[in-house]
Amino acid sequence: MSDASYRDAIFTTPLDRVASFSFDEQVVSCFPDMLRRSVPGYGQIIAMLGLMARAHLRPGARVYDLGCSLGAASMALAREMAPEDIEIEAIDLSAPMVERASRELAEAFPEHRINVNQADIRTLDYQPAGMIVVNFTLQFLPPEDRDAVIDKLYATLEPGGMLILSEKIISDDPVENAWLIERYHDFKRANGYSDLEISQKREALEDVMKPDSLNTHHARLARAGFVRSHTWLQYLNFASMVAFKAAD
Ligand SMILES: C[S@@+](CC[C@H](N)C(=O)[O-])C[C@H]1O[C@@H](n2cnc3c(N)ncnc32)[C@H](O)[C@@H]1O
Ligand SMILES: O=C(O)C(=O)C[C@]1(C(=O)O)C=C[C@@H](O)C=C1
Q1: Considering its fold, how many domains does the chain have in total?
Q2: ipTM (interface predicted TM)
Q3: Whole-model pTM?
Q4: What's residue 4's pLDDT?
């Protein structure tokens, strides 16, 4: 497969039956364009990851990139950190994502210690880490599995460790929620998606992606043991949170 990135045209034609969204070859081939045009704040979040690592990571510590897709977060971390200062474990369940991410990361950062593995973040055998990035991945797990994953990530972090959790969110206030979704659809239209593409994508995601509210996320983080968590970015119905484990 070529590494070229194509324009996302997956939902441009009317479909008799819209299949559930999955991270297959078709999505892989247009994924950077899809993220850029579909996730408000995506570029800003990625750009901050290296700076967060610089500010908080113990030199040489392990960092997990969970649901790494094509490795954009790992790339941002490697760009900012010297090879001896970071060891990256990038994990994804999708074979085509892992195949392409491992090739591109090895080409771009031959000196860095970056392992890309196909695995389920719910059952992964985690090793101690200083930082964990979960960028738009938790939302794809069944809601009943999310508490246990966050508990595992808490246990994986070293004292003083940091979790970055980015997610599509809902608002607990129905009026605010409807407004955010309407403006999000405006955002997509402004980025070249048609009404048909927007509605078919929405249908495809309905059964596979169930966003939580920020309150639910922060309550889950607190319950897991994180000493503090806050939302460091919100752009429409997309947000990124940071959570810290207490230093010993
Ligand atoms: C929206 S994408 C993540 C984008 C990526 N983190 C970035 O910043 O560019 C969600 C990814 O999570 C992966 N994923 C979904 N469920 C997973 C699971 N249980 N274990 C590992 N990866 C999973 C998908 O294959 C997909 O590549
Ligand atoms: O297009 C949407 O409606 C989205 O929610 C965007 C979103 C995401 O939030 O992860 C959904 C699926 C793809 O992984 C890329 C982006």
Answers
A1: 1
A2: 0.97
A3: 0.97
A4: 67
